[in-house]
Amino acid sequence: MTLQHFMNEAISPWMREEGPDSDIVLSSRIRLARNLADSKFPIIADVKDLEEIRDFFKKEYEHATFQDLDEFEFFPIKELSSVEKRVLVEKHLISPLLAKNADAAATMISKDEQVSVMINEEDHIRMQLYFPGLQLSKALTKAFEFDDWLEEKINYAFDETRGFLTSCPTNVGTGMRASVMMHLPALALTKQINRMMPAINQFGLVVRGIYGEGSEAVGNLFQISNQITLGKTEEDIIEDLESVVKQLIEHERKARTRLMEQSSTKLEDRIFRSLGVLKYSRIIESKEAASCLSNVRLGIDLEIIKNISRNILNELMVLTQPGFLQHYAKKTLSANERDVLRATLIRERLLLEEK
After folding, report:
1. Residues marked as binding?
2. Is residue 183, in this structure, part of any structural domain at all?
3. Which residue, 94, 192, 224, 244, could crosslink 98 as a Cys pair with Cβ 3.0–4.6 Å?
C-alpha cells in the first residue's frame, strides 16, 4: 500500500456508511493528545529528539494492525509534496499544523482511514478516530481501546492531579477533543445559527469551520467540539456535547419543516438553481461550489432531488478542494485553472450519476 491509496479516493471508506442522523451529522470524531513521559514536548524539543520519536513509531507501528483495522501506513511529512500534504489535510487525515512541521513530523493512517495518528504536531501523539453519523460514545470506546494499545509500548506524561499533560494548557486533563461535523443549511438560511452560537459557547463548546480552529464555515458545515478538557471525565464531555448536538438536530429538522411548509417554492427554486449551476457551469469558485453542493444535499435529504446520492455530494465537497484538483491534474494550477477544472469535474461526476 502506498500514499496513492489515500490520495485517489476523495472520501474515506468509512464515510460511505450510514450512521445515526447522518442526514445532518456527517461524522463523529475523537481526538486524544498524548506525550511521552521522558521526552521534551515538541514545542521545546530539538529536531534530533523528535526524529528519535518519529523513528520509534515507524519501527514499532508501521504495517501493524489493531483489532479489525487493516495495517497502518507510515509517512514522514518531509517526504510528502505540498499537494500530497494538502490532500491529506482536505481529507482530515492530518492537520494544517502537522503539514507545516516538516522536519520530524509524521503520520500513521489505517487503510480504511478511520484512524490516523499525527506524530510531533503540537504534542508527540495526536490520535484521531472517526465514525459516520452521531456515534460519539462508540467512537470514544474505540479510541480508548486504541489508546491502550499504543500505551503498551509507551509511557505517557501523566499527573495524578492534572491528568494527561500536553503542550497547550487548554488540552491538559483528558487531552480529548470530541467533535461532530454537522450540515445545518436550514438554520443558516433562517439565520438561527447565529443566535445559537452564544448559547452553545455557554456549554463549554465551540463552533468552528470544516477544518477546525481558524477555519471558515463553508457549505453550511459546522464543527462542534468541546473546549473544556480539565475537571470533567471523557464520558461527561461526550454527554454534554451529544446533548447539544441532539438539540441542534431537532432545531435543524424543525427549520427544514418550516421552510417546506412556508417557503416550499422558494426553497425548491434555490435547490434546483444550485443544481443547475453545478451541472452547467464552466467555471466555479470553491465557495460557490460549496454553497451549491449544500443546497443540493438539502434537496436530497428532503427528497426534492431523488436521482443523486448523498455520498456524491460528500465526495464532491472534498474532490473540488485545491489540493485534490492539483493532484487530479498532476500539476500546479492557478486559481482560475482550479475554478475551470472544478466545474468540469462536478459536471462529469453528476453526469455519471444520472446514467
Report:
1. 27-31, 92, 126, 177-181, 208-213
2. no
3. 94
**Amino acid of residue 343:** A
Asked whether the beta carbons of 167 and 43 are under 8 A apart, the reply is yes
Answer whether residue 42 is part of any domain: no
Residue (of 345, 337, 281) closest to 317 by Cα position:
345
Q: Which residues define the annotated binding site for ATP?
A: 27-31, 92, 126, 177-181, 208-213
CB 231 within 8 A of CB 187: no
Domain that holds residue 318: 263-352
Is 318 among the domain residues? Answer: yes
Does 139 reside within a domain?
no
pTM metric for this prediction: 0.91
Determine the Cα–Cα distance for residues 171 and 316; give it in Å rounded to an integer.
33
pLDDT, tens digit only, all 355 positions of the chain: 567 777 777 778 888 888 999 999 999 999 999 999 989 999 899 999 999 999 999 999 988 888 888 789 999 999 999 999 999 999 999 999 999 987 899 999 998 899 999 999 999 999 999 999 999 999 999 999 999 999 999 999 999 989 999 999 889 999 999 999 999 999 999 999 888 888 888 888 998 876 555 456 678 999 999 988 888 899 999 999 999 999 999 999 999 999 999 999 999 999 999 999 999 999 999 999 999 999 999 999 999 998 888 888 788 888 899 999 999 899 999 999 999 999 999 999 888 776 5
Query: 268: Cβ–Cβ under 8 A, 6 or more apart, which residues?
Result: 299, 304
